[in-house]
What does this fold into?
Amino acid sequence: MDSYDMESEPIVNFEAFYGAKKNLVKICLVIFSKEIYEHLLSQYECRRIAEVSFCNGNIPVWSFQRNHREIAFYLTHIGAACAGELTAEVNHLTGAEQFIMFGSCGSLDNEITNGKFIIPTQAYRGEGLSYYFAKPQDYIHIKNADRLAQIFTELHIPFVKGKVWTTDCPLRETVNLVNRRKAEGCIAVEMEVAGVQAVCDFYGFELYDFLSAGDVLEEGNYQTENLSDANHNLDKLQIALQISDRV
It folds into this structure.
């Protein structure tokens, strides 16, 4: 509860690793699926514009032209801590300030989410990253949810808006915790939104996030048959590209 420190300066800064901030692009796609990532590389004339350094392997940042605009993309790590950190590093390396993120999630209410994309409106902060970037409270507001819903409506794409639960421990989504989040109005559970939104709010970036439900978390009837499609379906990419045209 005391991790949000605005009284002193950070010791670590990106300039120490990467030098001065770059301004190469404005829009960046945050990719979770290796199949979608490889599809972009094979279908577009991409150029490598940056690289995020890690001791266990670097993450290249690519860009391609769409409607006379340069769009960046990269294959992010899973989980709020890594995904949120990467948005800040990619901003420093490329100048990107508008992040379009689209991943999979677990449904907490299949009747509501079945056959629809999910636009988070609030995210329960069941991870640690957000508490370093925003004052402590249970939920964080997803500020571009209404704008994203407007775009989905314009495109005639079925969607539902609602609260989601961001967790950093998918193996501990217990019956009691699922029921508690459902009672608060959560319709899905995922691993990044709360943390990435907190980072974006802190630095002044814009996040546009939508989700596709894969597994269904129901007591005694855990369903996984839609996981692969939720992770890798190219429909999400086409929607993200349409969003990039409108933000």
About this structure: The longest helix spans residues 80-94. The radius of gyration is 18 Å. The chain has one domain: 22-246.
